[in-house]
Amino acid sequence: MTHPKQPFARRIVIAFTLMTLVVSGFFSLSIVAIVHFVERHLVSQELKSELDTVINQDIKQGHIPRLDAATRFFASDLPPYAIPESLRHAEKGFSELREGERAYYIYVMKRDGQTYMLVEDQSEFEAREQMLFRVILFSFLLSVVGAWLLGLLLARKVIAPVIRLARQVRHRDQLLPLAPPLAPEYPDDEVGHLAAAFDSTLGQLRQSLERERLFTSDVSHELRTPLMVIQGSCELLRETELPVQANRQVERIGRAAQEMHELVQTFLILARARREEAASGGSATLANVAEEQSRRWGPPIRAKGLNFELVVEDTDSASYNLTFLSTVLSNLLRNALHYTENGTVRLILEKGGFRVEDSGAGIPAEHRERIFQPFVRGEQARGEGLGLGLSLVKRICMHQGWQVRVSDLKPSGSCFRVSLK
Protein backbone atom coordinates (compact mmCIF):
# COMPACT_ATOMS: atom_id res chain seq x y z
CA MET A 1 0.00 0.00 0.00
CA THR A 2 1.50 3.34 -1.05
CA HIS A 3 0.89 6.54 0.87
CA PRO A 4 0.71 9.90 -0.92
CA LYS A 5 3.86 11.93 -0.42
CA GLN A 6 3.45 15.37 1.12
CA PRO A 7 5.52 18.33 -0.12
CA PHE A 8 8.47 19.17 2.11
CA ALA A 9 7.09 22.62 3.01
CA ARG A 10 3.74 21.13 4.02
CA ARG A 11 5.49 18.55 6.19
CA ILE A 12 7.33 21.36 7.99
CA VAL A 13 4.04 23.17 8.64
CA ILE A 14 2.34 19.97 9.82
CA ALA A 15 5.24 19.09 12.14
CA PHE A 16 5.39 22.61 13.57
CA THR A 17 1.62 22.70 14.12
CA LEU A 18 1.50 19.24 15.68
CA MET A 19 4.35 20.10 18.03
CA THR A 20 2.53 23.24 19.17
CA LEU A 21 -0.73 21.30 19.43
CA VAL A 22 0.86 18.74 21.75
CA VAL A 23 2.81 21.23 23.89
CA SER A 24 0.02 23.81 24.12
CA GLY A 25 -2.58 21.10 24.74
CA PHE A 26 -0.46 19.61 27.52
CA PHE A 27 -0.05 22.97 29.27
CA SER A 28 -3.73 23.84 28.82
CA LEU A 29 -4.87 20.54 30.31
CA SER A 30 -2.30 20.95 33.09
CA ILE A 31 -3.71 24.37 34.00
CA VAL A 32 -7.25 23.00 34.06
CA ALA A 33 -6.17 20.05 36.21
CA ILE A 34 -4.28 22.32 38.63
CA VAL A 35 -7.25 24.67 38.96
CA HIS A 36 -9.53 21.74 39.78
CA PHE A 37 -7.04 20.28 42.26
CA VAL A 38 -6.42 23.60 44.02
CA GLU A 39 -10.12 24.38 44.04
CA ARG A 40 -11.04 21.06 45.60
CA HIS A 41 -8.20 21.00 48.11
CA LEU A 42 -8.34 24.60 49.31
CA VAL A 43 -12.12 24.89 49.37
CA SER A 44 -12.37 21.56 51.18
CA GLN A 45 -9.88 22.69 53.83
CA GLU A 46 -11.60 26.05 54.24
CA LEU A 47 -15.09 24.56 54.58
CA LYS A 48 -13.85 21.92 57.03
CA SER A 49 -12.20 24.55 59.23
CA GLU A 50 -15.26 26.75 59.08
CA LEU A 51 -17.58 23.83 59.94
CA ASP A 52 -15.38 22.89 62.93
CA THR A 53 -15.62 26.45 64.20
CA VAL A 54 -19.40 26.50 63.89
CA ILE A 55 -19.83 23.14 65.67
CA ASN A 56 -17.23 23.60 68.42
CA GLN A 57 -17.81 27.25 69.20
CA ASP A 58 -21.02 28.74 67.89
CA ILE A 59 -23.39 25.79 68.37
CA LYS A 60 -21.87 24.71 71.71
CA GLN A 61 -22.25 28.21 73.09
CA GLY A 62 -25.77 28.55 71.71
CA HIS A 63 -24.83 31.25 69.26
CA ILE A 64 -26.08 31.63 65.70
CA PRO A 65 -23.43 30.35 63.26
CA ARG A 66 -21.25 33.23 62.14
CA LEU A 67 -21.31 32.71 58.42
CA ASP A 68 -21.34 35.02 55.40
CA ALA A 69 -24.46 35.48 53.29
CA ALA A 70 -23.35 32.89 50.71
CA THR A 71 -22.87 30.08 53.25
CA ARG A 72 -25.56 28.10 55.08
CA PHE A 73 -25.31 25.61 57.97
CA PHE A 74 -27.38 22.44 58.35
CA ALA A 75 -27.46 19.80 61.11
CA SER A 76 -29.46 16.59 61.52
CA ASP A 77 -30.00 17.12 65.30
CA LEU A 78 -30.92 20.81 65.21
CA PRO A 79 -34.48 21.47 63.95
CA PRO A 80 -33.79 25.15 63.11
CA TYR A 81 -31.03 23.90 60.79
CA ALA A 82 -32.74 20.82 59.39
CA ILE A 83 -31.09 19.34 56.35
CA PRO A 84 -33.19 19.82 53.16
CA GLU A 85 -34.44 16.71 51.42
CA SER A 86 -32.28 17.41 48.35
CA LEU A 87 -29.10 17.39 50.46
CA ARG A 88 -29.71 14.38 52.73
CA HIS A 89 -27.91 12.01 50.37
CA ALA A 90 -24.75 14.13 50.09
CA GLU A 91 -21.58 12.10 50.62
CA LYS A 92 -19.16 12.69 53.47
CA GLY A 93 -16.48 15.22 52.74
CA PHE A 94 -16.33 17.73 49.89
CA SER A 95 -18.64 17.65 46.87
CA GLU A 96 -20.24 19.97 44.31
CA LEU A 97 -23.88 20.43 43.44
CA ARG A 98 -25.51 22.19 40.48
CA GLU A 99 -29.10 23.30 40.37
CA GLY A 100 -29.82 24.99 37.08
CA GLU A 101 -27.43 27.91 36.75
CA ARG A 102 -26.50 27.86 40.45
CA ALA A 103 -23.41 26.06 41.77
CA TYR A 104 -22.80 25.00 45.38
CA TYR A 105 -19.90 23.60 47.37
CA ILE A 106 -20.92 21.12 50.04
CA TYR A 107 -18.89 19.83 52.95
CA VAL A 108 -20.40 17.05 55.08
CA MET A 109 -19.06 15.99 58.52
CA LYS A 110 -20.41 13.12 60.60
CA ARG A 111 -19.82 13.29 64.38
CA ASP A 112 -21.41 11.22 67.17
CA GLY A 113 -23.96 9.80 64.75
CA GLN A 114 -25.07 13.25 63.63
CA THR A 115 -24.59 14.92 60.27
CA TYR A 116 -23.37 18.48 59.91
CA MET A 117 -23.18 20.32 56.66
CA LEU A 118 -22.01 23.61 55.15
CA VAL A 119 -23.38 24.69 51.77
CA GLU A 120 -21.64 27.59 50.03
CA ASP A 121 -23.00 29.33 46.94
CA GLN A 122 -20.15 29.53 44.43
CA SER A 123 -22.04 30.56 41.30
CA GLU A 124 -19.91 33.68 40.81
CA PHE A 125 -16.69 31.75 41.33
CA GLU A 126 -17.82 29.07 38.90
CA ALA A 127 -18.67 31.74 36.32
CA ARG A 128 -15.18 33.16 36.67
CA GLU A 129 -13.72 29.67 36.45
CA GLN A 130 -15.66 29.01 33.24
CA MET A 131 -14.38 32.30 31.86
CA LEU A 132 -10.84 31.20 32.73
CA PHE A 133 -11.37 27.91 30.92
CA ARG A 134 -12.69 29.77 27.86
CA VAL A 135 -9.62 31.97 27.90
CA ILE A 136 -7.42 28.87 28.10
CA LEU A 137 -9.30 27.28 25.19
CA PHE A 138 -9.07 30.47 23.14
CA SER A 139 -5.36 30.75 23.91
CA PHE A 140 -4.89 27.11 22.90
CA LEU A 141 -6.65 27.61 19.57
CA LEU A 142 -4.83 30.89 19.01
CA SER A 143 -1.48 29.22 19.66
CA VAL A 144 -2.29 26.45 17.15
CA VAL A 145 -3.34 28.96 14.48
CA GLY A 146 -0.28 31.07 15.26
CA ALA A 147 1.93 28.00 14.99
CA TRP A 148 0.38 27.18 11.62
CA LEU A 149 0.99 30.70 10.30
CA LEU A 150 4.49 30.78 11.75
CA GLY A 151 5.10 27.32 10.25
CA LEU A 152 4.07 28.62 6.83
CA LEU A 153 6.42 31.56 7.17
CA LEU A 154 9.33 29.44 8.39
CA ALA A 155 8.66 26.73 5.80
CA ARG A 156 8.86 29.28 3.00
CA LYS A 157 12.02 30.69 4.47
CA VAL A 158 13.59 27.27 5.01
CA ILE A 159 12.48 25.80 1.70
CA ALA A 160 13.35 28.87 -0.41
CA PRO A 161 17.02 27.84 -0.96
CA VAL A 162 15.92 24.29 -1.82
CA ILE A 163 13.36 25.58 -4.35
CA ARG A 164 15.98 27.87 -5.86
CA LEU A 165 18.46 24.99 -6.09
CA ALA A 166 15.84 22.75 -7.70
CA ARG A 167 15.11 25.39 -10.35
CA GLN A 168 18.79 25.77 -11.10
CA VAL A 169 19.29 22.01 -11.40
CA ARG A 170 16.24 21.69 -13.70
CA HIS A 171 17.46 24.46 -16.01
CA ARG A 172 18.56 23.05 -19.35
CA ASP A 173 21.76 25.11 -19.35
CA GLN A 174 23.09 23.00 -16.45
CA LEU A 175 24.00 20.28 -18.95
CA LEU A 176 26.21 22.64 -20.95
CA PRO A 177 29.96 22.05 -20.49
CA LEU A 178 30.61 25.64 -19.31
CA ALA A 179 27.73 25.80 -16.80
CA PRO A 180 28.94 27.45 -13.54
CA PRO A 181 29.01 25.40 -10.31
CA LEU A 182 26.08 25.76 -7.89
CA ALA A 183 27.75 25.28 -4.49
CA PRO A 184 29.53 28.70 -4.26
CA GLU A 185 26.12 30.44 -4.22
CA TYR A 186 25.07 28.71 -0.97
CA PRO A 187 26.40 28.74 2.62
CA ASP A 188 28.24 25.79 4.11
CA ASP A 189 25.13 24.05 5.42
CA GLU A 190 22.89 21.15 4.36
CA VAL A 191 21.68 23.01 1.24
CA GLY A 192 25.27 23.88 0.35
CA HIS A 193 26.27 20.22 0.69
CA LEU A 194 23.32 19.25 -1.52
CA ALA A 195 24.42 21.81 -4.12
CA ALA A 196 27.94 20.36 -4.01
CA ALA A 197 26.52 16.87 -4.55
CA PHE A 198 24.54 18.16 -7.54
CA ASP A 199 27.70 19.77 -8.92
CA SER A 200 29.52 16.45 -8.71
CA THR A 201 26.67 14.48 -10.31
CA LEU A 202 26.02 17.08 -13.01
CA GLY A 203 29.74 17.17 -13.79
CA GLN A 204 29.78 13.43 -14.36
CA LEU A 205 26.60 13.69 -16.45
CA ARG A 206 28.09 16.47 -18.59
CA GLN A 207 31.19 14.37 -19.20
CA SER A 208 29.06 11.36 -20.17
CA LEU A 209 26.92 13.43 -22.52
CA GLU A 210 29.97 15.00 -24.08
CA ARG A 211 31.62 11.60 -24.59
CA GLU A 212 28.40 10.26 -26.13
CA ARG A 213 28.07 13.30 -28.38
CA LEU A 214 31.67 13.05 -29.57
CA PHE A 215 31.43 9.29 -30.08
CA THR A 216 28.17 9.59 -32.03
CA SER A 217 29.52 12.42 -34.15
CA ASP A 218 32.82 10.68 -34.87
CA VAL A 219 31.27 7.31 -35.71
CA SER A 220 28.55 8.88 -37.85
CA HIS A 221 31.11 10.98 -39.68
CA GLU A 222 33.42 8.01 -40.30
CA LEU A 223 30.53 5.89 -41.65
CA ARG A 224 29.65 8.41 -44.34
CA THR A 225 32.61 7.56 -46.57
CA PRO A 226 32.01 3.79 -46.88
CA LEU A 227 28.28 4.42 -47.26
CA MET A 228 28.93 6.77 -50.18
CA VAL A 229 31.13 4.09 -51.77
CA ILE A 230 28.39 1.46 -51.33
CA GLN A 231 25.68 3.72 -52.74
CA GLY A 232 27.86 4.73 -55.68
CA SER A 233 28.67 1.10 -56.42
CA CYS A 234 24.97 0.20 -56.35
CA GLU A 235 24.19 2.96 -58.83
CA LEU A 236 26.92 1.67 -61.19
CA LEU A 237 25.66 -1.90 -60.88
CA ARG A 238 22.10 -0.83 -61.73
CA GLU A 239 23.36 0.53 -65.04
CA THR A 240 24.88 -2.82 -66.03
CA GLU A 241 23.09 -5.89 -67.29
CA LEU A 242 22.75 -8.31 -64.39
CA PRO A 243 20.60 -11.37 -63.79
CA VAL A 244 17.24 -10.77 -62.12
CA GLN A 245 18.38 -12.26 -58.83
CA ALA A 246 21.50 -10.11 -58.85
CA ASN A 247 19.42 -6.99 -59.53
CA ARG A 248 17.26 -7.80 -56.51
CA GLN A 249 20.33 -8.13 -54.32
CA VAL A 250 21.67 -4.82 -55.62
CA GLU A 251 18.33 -3.16 -54.83
CA ARG A 252 18.41 -4.65 -51.34
CA ILE A 253 21.97 -3.42 -50.77
CA GLY A 254 20.95 0.03 -52.02
CA ARG A 255 17.97 0.18 -49.65
CA ALA A 256 20.12 -0.90 -46.71
CA ALA A 257 22.74 1.72 -47.57
CA GLN A 258 20.04 4.39 -47.81
CA GLU A 259 18.65 3.35 -44.43
CA MET A 260 22.11 3.49 -42.93
CA HIS A 261 22.67 6.92 -44.42
CA GLU A 262 19.43 8.19 -42.86
CA LEU A 263 20.36 6.69 -39.50
CA VAL A 264 23.76 8.36 -39.64
CA GLN A 265 22.09 11.68 -40.39
CA THR A 266 19.63 11.13 -37.54
CA PHE A 267 22.37 10.32 -35.03
CA LEU A 268 24.37 13.35 -36.12
CA ILE A 269 21.42 15.64 -35.46
CA LEU A 270 20.56 13.97 -32.14
CA ALA A 271 24.16 14.41 -31.03
CA ARG A 272 23.70 18.18 -31.11
CA ALA A 273 22.79 19.78 -27.84
CA ARG A 274 19.87 22.03 -28.74
CA ARG A 275 16.62 21.23 -30.50
CA GLU A 276 16.79 24.30 -32.72
CA GLU A 277 20.08 23.02 -34.17
CA ALA A 278 18.17 20.11 -35.69
CA ALA A 279 16.95 22.37 -38.50
CA SER A 280 19.85 21.06 -40.60
CA GLY A 281 17.75 17.94 -41.23
CA GLY A 282 15.52 19.82 -43.67
CA SER A 283 11.75 20.16 -43.51
CA ALA A 284 8.79 18.54 -45.23
CA THR A 285 5.08 18.00 -44.80
CA LEU A 286 3.66 14.82 -43.33
CA ALA A 287 1.97 13.92 -46.63
CA ASN A 288 5.22 14.18 -48.61
CA VAL A 289 7.18 12.03 -46.16
CA ALA A 290 4.33 9.50 -45.99
CA GLU A 291 4.28 9.22 -49.80
CA GLU A 292 8.02 8.69 -49.92
CA GLN A 293 7.99 6.03 -47.16
CA SER A 294 4.99 4.30 -48.81
CA ARG A 295 6.90 3.98 -52.07
CA ARG A 296 9.86 2.64 -50.13
CA TRP A 297 8.11 0.14 -47.82
CA GLY A 298 5.05 -0.72 -49.89
CA PRO A 299 6.88 -3.18 -52.19
CA PRO A 300 8.60 -5.27 -49.45
CA ILE A 301 5.36 -5.37 -47.43
CA ARG A 302 3.39 -6.59 -50.44
CA ALA A 303 6.19 -8.98 -51.36
CA LYS A 304 5.60 -10.69 -48.02
CA GLY A 305 1.99 -11.32 -49.02
CA LEU A 306 0.51 -8.48 -46.95
CA ASN A 307 -1.78 -5.68 -48.02
CA PHE A 308 -0.47 -2.15 -47.64
CA GLU A 309 -2.68 0.94 -47.49
CA LEU A 310 -1.98 4.66 -47.23
CA VAL A 311 -5.09 6.34 -45.81
CA VAL A 312 -5.54 10.11 -45.52
CA GLU A 313 -8.15 10.86 -42.84
CA ASP A 314 -7.20 14.54 -42.58
CA THR A 315 -4.64 16.88 -44.09
CA ASP A 316 -1.77 18.52 -42.26
CA SER A 317 0.07 21.41 -43.91
CA ALA A 318 2.65 21.93 -41.13
CA SER A 319 6.34 21.40 -41.81
CA TYR A 320 8.40 18.93 -39.80
CA ASN A 321 12.02 17.85 -39.64
CA LEU A 322 12.49 15.67 -42.72
CA THR A 323 15.20 13.41 -41.27
CA PHE A 324 13.43 12.75 -37.97
CA LEU A 325 9.99 12.23 -39.48
CA SER A 326 11.37 9.88 -42.14
CA THR A 327 13.25 7.87 -39.52
CA VAL A 328 10.17 7.54 -37.27
CA LEU A 329 7.93 6.47 -40.15
CA SER A 330 10.54 4.10 -41.56
CA ASN A 331 11.13 2.35 -38.22
CA LEU A 332 7.41 1.95 -37.49
CA LEU A 333 6.72 0.52 -40.97
CA ARG A 334 9.71 -1.81 -40.69
CA ASN A 335 8.45 -2.95 -37.29
CA ALA A 336 5.00 -3.65 -38.75
CA LEU A 337 6.59 -5.63 -41.60
CA HIS A 338 8.66 -7.80 -39.25
CA TYR A 339 5.83 -8.61 -36.81
CA THR A 340 2.93 -9.16 -39.22
CA GLU A 341 2.58 -12.55 -40.88
CA ASN A 342 -0.73 -12.05 -42.67
CA GLY A 343 -3.32 -9.37 -43.13
CA THR A 344 -2.77 -5.65 -43.62
CA VAL A 345 -0.40 -2.83 -42.73
CA ARG A 346 -1.96 0.63 -42.83
CA LEU A 347 -0.38 4.07 -42.65
CA ILE A 348 -3.11 6.53 -41.65
CA LEU A 349 -2.53 10.29 -41.78
CA GLU A 350 -4.50 12.57 -39.47
CA LYS A 351 -4.39 16.16 -38.31
CA GLY A 352 -1.18 16.68 -36.36
CA GLY A 353 0.03 13.09 -36.56
CA PHE A 354 -0.34 9.62 -37.99
CA ARG A 355 -1.00 5.97 -37.08
CA VAL A 356 0.67 2.75 -38.20
CA GLU A 357 -1.69 -0.19 -37.81
CA ASP A 358 -0.98 -3.86 -38.42
CA SER A 359 -2.84 -7.15 -38.03
CA GLY A 360 -0.02 -8.94 -36.21
CA ALA A 361 -0.07 -10.69 -32.84
CA GLY A 362 -0.27 -7.46 -30.85
CA ILE A 363 1.71 -6.37 -27.80
CA PRO A 364 0.74 -7.44 -24.25
CA ALA A 365 -0.19 -4.51 -21.98
CA GLU A 366 2.67 -5.24 -19.58
CA HIS A 367 5.23 -4.93 -22.40
CA ARG A 368 4.02 -1.70 -24.01
CA GLU A 369 6.42 0.53 -22.10
CA ARG A 370 9.39 -1.83 -22.29
CA ILE A 371 9.35 -2.10 -26.08
CA PHE A 372 10.59 1.51 -26.31
CA GLN A 373 13.70 0.61 -24.32
CA PRO A 374 16.97 -0.20 -26.11
CA PHE A 375 17.64 -3.84 -27.05
CA VAL A 376 14.10 -4.94 -26.14
CA ARG A 377 12.30 -7.00 -28.80
CA GLY A 378 8.87 -8.56 -28.95
CA GLU A 379 8.22 -12.13 -27.87
CA GLN A 380 7.84 -13.12 -31.53
CA ALA A 381 10.96 -11.36 -32.79
CA ARG A 382 11.44 -11.21 -36.55
CA GLY A 383 14.31 -10.07 -38.77
CA GLU A 384 17.87 -9.36 -37.73
CA GLY A 385 17.24 -6.22 -35.69
CA LEU A 386 18.70 -5.60 -32.26
CA GLY A 387 15.63 -3.97 -30.75
CA LEU A 388 16.84 -0.39 -31.28
CA GLY A 389 14.25 0.83 -33.80
CA LEU A 390 11.45 1.69 -31.36
CA SER A 391 14.01 3.04 -28.89
CA LEU A 392 15.20 5.44 -31.60
CA VAL A 393 11.58 6.40 -32.35
CA LYS A 394 11.04 7.22 -28.67
CA ARG A 395 14.24 9.23 -28.48
CA ILE A 396 13.36 11.29 -31.56
CA CYS A 397 9.86 11.98 -30.26
CA MET A 398 11.24 13.18 -26.91
CA HIS A 399 13.78 15.36 -28.72
CA GLN A 400 11.12 16.96 -30.91
CA GLY A 401 8.36 17.20 -28.30
CA TRP A 402 6.26 14.56 -30.08
CA GLN A 403 4.35 11.75 -28.40
CA VAL A 404 4.25 8.07 -29.37
CA ARG A 405 1.76 5.60 -27.90
CA VAL A 406 0.91 1.99 -28.65
CA SER A 407 -2.41 0.20 -28.27
CA ASP A 408 -4.08 -3.04 -29.35
CA LEU A 409 -6.42 -3.47 -32.28
CA LYS A 410 -9.38 -5.83 -32.38
CA PRO A 411 -9.39 -8.74 -33.10
CA SER A 412 -5.58 -8.69 -33.31
CA GLY A 413 -2.80 -6.28 -34.15
CA SER A 414 -1.12 -3.14 -32.88
CA CYS A 415 -1.55 0.57 -33.43
CA PHE A 416 1.33 3.02 -33.04
CA ARG A 417 0.04 6.60 -32.84
CA VAL A 418 2.44 9.54 -33.17
CA SER A 419 1.24 13.03 -32.25
CA LEU A 420 3.38 15.71 -33.82
CA LYS A 421 1.83 18.64 -31.94
TrEMBL record:
Keywords, comma-separated and alphabetical: Kinase, Membrane, Phosphoprotein, Transferase, Transmembrane, Transmembrane helix, Two-component regulatory system
Molecular function as annotated in GO: kinase activity
Keyword Transferase: yes
PROSITE patterns in alphabetical order: HAMP (PS50885), HIS_KIN (PS50109)
UniProt-listed Enzyme Commission number(s): 2.7.13.3
Cell compartment(s), UniProt: Membrane
Domain of life per record: Bacteria
Classification via SMART domains: HAMP, HATPase_c, HisKA
One Pfam match: HATPase_c
Chain ranges of the Histidine kinase domain: 218-421
Transmembrane feature ranges: 12-38, 131-155
Catalysed reaction, written as an equation: ATP + protein L-histidine = ADP + protein N-phospho-L-histidine
Keyword set includes Metal-binding: no
Positions of the HAMP domain: 156-210
Family annotation (SUPFAM superfamilies): ATPase domain of HSP90 chaperone/DNA topoisomerase II/histidine kinase (SSF55874), Homodimeric domain of signal transducing histidine kinase (SSF47384)
PANTHER family: HISTIDINE KINASE, SENSOR HISTIDINE KINASE YKOH
Official protein name in the record: histidine kinase
Organism expressing this protein natively: Azorhizophilus paspali
